[in-house]
Design brief:
alpha/beta; globular; D-Maltodextrin-Binding Protein, domain 2; 2 domains; six-stranded mixed beta sheet; five-stranded mixed beta sheet; 286 residues
């Protein structure tokens, strides 16, 4: 049994559930056993080596590089959009404002810290951030996942994380938010098969978006309505989620570079060095 961790947000469920519904993966020697947890819990679980395969923030990957390979499928990027720093309309933020973030290892938290080094950070489950701002527990918070689509009318956007990203990157690159990592101890031929199956699952999901979306809504596993789900999937689970392209890889490398220069990472990584060497399969079959 291959253990897989993914988040309960709509894009992860959408990209994985072609396997749950049996549309993909029948040819695998070992079946998948999935667990849905919030993204920071998954980041920590991957650091601890709990799951064979896991969704992970791209910002967390350098911390697990020795034990996990980076997959090239099941990815979510921002492209002109992304997490939002929100506050009450009546609140004016000071330099050392209190802010709720979704986890120390998340990409949005890393980018936020680059722009607001004096902010006082509280880390919370992403589902608790909006209410923490409304209650006054914190002055602001960064909303992620479906929360960016519909939040309380007493709140407004202070700044888009996308804008901070472009400012720090000094160019408009896709904003690397979520990816997947696979345990290195898994034999290479099996690892290649797992990545191939996950890639097929995302491809099938994207091609059958309306059918799969309806099934997810009918089963009550999605937190948003049909209209919001359609919008959200267009943002984060689309044709660009099937397999990393060169521009996305450049975005990942820019994130790693910014993190290294800020002292967050101890080495400067290039993502291409950490993918599963799929060329092995072609050599093996030649």
């Amino acid at each position: 049994m291959i253990s897989i961790g993914h988040s309960p947000d709509a894009d992860d469920l959408f990209m994985y559930y072609a396997i749950v519904f049996g549309w993909v993966g029948d040819d695998l020697e070992e079946k998948f056993e999935n667990q849905a947890l919030d993204i920071e819990t998954l980041n920590i679980a991957t650091i601890q080596g709990i799951y064979d395969v896991s969704a992970i923030s791209f910002g967390a990957y350098p911390f697990v590089r020795e034990n996990f390979a980076l997959l090239q499928t099941g990815v979510s990027f921002g492209d002109g959009y992304g997490p939002k720093l929100i506050r009450k309309k009546t609140t004016q933020l000071k330099k050392n404002f209190r802010v709720a973030l979704s986890g120390v290892h998340t990409t949005n938290a890393i980018i936020f810290r680059l722009a607001y080094p004096e902010a006082r950070i509280v880390y919370k489950n992403f589902l608790e951030i909006e209410s923490a701002v409304i209650s006054g527990e914190v002055d602001a918070g960064v909303l992620i996942h479906e929360s960016i689509l519909n939040f309380d009318t007493s709140l407004e956007v202070e700044r888009e994380i996308w804008d901070i990203w472009c400012e720090k990157a000094q160019e408009e690159l896709p904003l690397p938010l979520g990816g997947m990592a696979l345990r290195r101890s898994i034999p290479l031929n099996k690892a290649i098969n797992i990545e191939s199956t996950l890639t097929k699952a995302v491809e099938v999901a994207v091609k059958n978006k309306k059918i799969l979306s309806k099934m997810l809504i009918e089963r009550g596993v999605i937190r948003v309505d049909e209209k919001e789900l359609d919008i959200y999937l267009d943002l984060y689970a689309n044709k660009d989620s099937i397999s990393l392209n060169d521009l996305q890889k450049k975005g990942i490398n820019k994130l790693f570079e910014l993190g290294f220069k800020a002292g967050i990472y101890d080495v400067l990584l290039e993502c291409e060095d950490y993918f599963i060497p799929t060329g092995y399969q072609a050599l093996r079959n030649s």
